[in-house]
Design goal:
Oligomer: single chain
CATH class of the largest domain: Alpha Beta
Distance between the termini: 34 Å
Structural class: alpha/beta
Shape: elongated
Number of helices: 7
């Protein structure tokens, strides 16, 4: 049941682990949709793929040379080559129509179907063809099946080639093409509605002016949403007008709603009250730094994340809560999608037992250097940082010189 948090404000705060557990337990992958083959890269398979054909579906040459009966080449050498009559040519997509008889050879190119009657290919480098005489001399023996790709050598009919839950890479989609899949059942991409609020905001890309600041959260979140395999719905910056915010939060197309700004308990922080009225406000106030004013709830079937307006707080709240939920909805892993590196700490990180800290760190001379842990509006700190260190709530901090795991900003971990 949703907890009534409206009267207590931030007198209490939920633990990060409690919120993460709630989201894990209440998030399942969306239903599947049929996706054209050429649009499948990066998508997540909704069900196993079983090959309905053999690849290749015919025996084929593994190199340029001559198709012969292998036993007839036994004894061939540079000093005593064996001659074969050349009766034609086999090309990829254009097989030789006849059959190879005793003493005959068919000129063949890599990938071409092996002619009937032949069971081996002798490579061109050990052959000398006399075009006028229509003969080829073979100076090296080849055993039957030598240099021949057999039926199903790559993929066998009935083989399970890809499993549900796999995030498709370009080579995976190439394999799907090779077995004749023009369309693929993939988990539907989550649709994410951005609700950007604030009378003080100018559109992304505008020049700061007077008391106005430029919206950066929508730019960051759109990039993160794309990274996590979801689709951002069209949006506009909204003034701090409750009716406008309520309408945007109630977007019927959205699987996830990300509200940036107005998440705390101030005079213009309308989002928590609106969410509790329209749906459920399951959490409001989390024991973490930054991002403590974060709120989480549901409106219909959609998850709603109330993210602080300060850019670093917004980023941290997304990474802890919204990102994993979006990835799980899309059939991906909810784990942090970052590479991890370990370095000794240049100076201590102070924390408080009972609070989870998200600490940005730079890399200097092989050491992780904590950046200012205050100043959640300082977006440039995430640019100077190589990544972040998570300080669990059970710790008072981390001592200078201790090895820390850094979640790197620069590159996602492939799944």
């Amino acid at each position: 049941m949703p907890r009534d948090v409206r009267m207590r404000g931030f007198a209490e705060r939920a633990d990060v682990e409690e919120v993460e557990s709630f989201l894990r337990q209440n998030t399942t992958a969306l239903l599947s949709e049929v996706v054209p083959l050429l649009e499948c890269v990066g998508r997540v398979l909704a069900r196993d793929v079983v090959a309905e054909v053999d690849v290749p579906g015919f025996p084929r040459s593994a190199m340029d040379g001559y198709a012969i009966r292998g036993e007839e080449s036994f004894g061939a050498s540079d000093y005593d080559p064996i001659a074969f009559g050349v009766i034609g040519t086999a090309l990829p997509g254009n097989p030789y129509p006849g059959s190879v008889e005793a003493g005959q050879a068919v000129r063949i190119m890599t990938g071409a179907p092996l002619p009937g009657g032949a069971d081996a290919v002798v490579m061109a480098e050990v052959c000398q063809e006399d075009l006028k005489a229509g003969r080829v001399e073979v100076s090296e023996a080849v055993a039957p099946r030598k240099n021949v790709g057999v039926i199903g050598e790559d993929i066998r009919k009935g083989e399970r080639v890809l499993f549900a839950g796999r995030r498709l890479r370009p080579q995976d989609v190439g394999l799907l093409s090779s077995i004749g899949h023009a369309r693929v059942d993939c988990v539907r991409r989550p649709r994410v509605a951005l609700v950007i609020t604030g009378d003080e905001l100018l559109p992304a890309g505008a020049r700061p002016s007077g008391a106005k600041i430029v919206d950066s959260n929508s730019v960051v979140m759109r990039g993160l949403v794309d990274r996590d395999g979801a689709e951002s719905l069209p949006f506009q910056i909204l003034p701090d007008v409750p009716e406008r915010i309520a309408e945007a939060m109630s977007n019927q197309e959205a699987d996830v709603v990300l509200v940036s700004g107005g998440s705390s308990v101030g005079q213009e922080d309308h989002a928590p009250r609106l969410l509790s009225q329209l749906g459920s406000l399951d959490f409001h106030g989390i024991s973490m730094r930054p991002s403590s004013p974060t709120g989480i709830g549901r409106l219909g079937d959609a998850f709603v994340f109330l993210l602080p307006g300060n850019p670093v707080s917004c980023l941290a709240a997304y990474e802890f809560f919204a990102g994993p939920t979006i990835r799980r909805l899309g059939g991906r892993s909810g784990a942090w999608p970052h590479r991890v590196a370990s370095w000794p700490l240049a100076r201590k990180i102070a924390s408080a037992i009972g609070r989870t800290d998200y600490v940005r760190v730079a890399l200097e001379e092989g050491h992780a250097v904590p950046l200012a842990t205050s100043g959640a509006s300082i977006l440039s700190s995430t640019v100077r940082a190589v990544g972040a260190v998570i300080v669990p709530r059970e710790w008072e901090g981390i001592a200078e010189g201790d090895s820390v795991e850094v979640l790197l900003y620069d590159e996602d971990r492939s799944e």
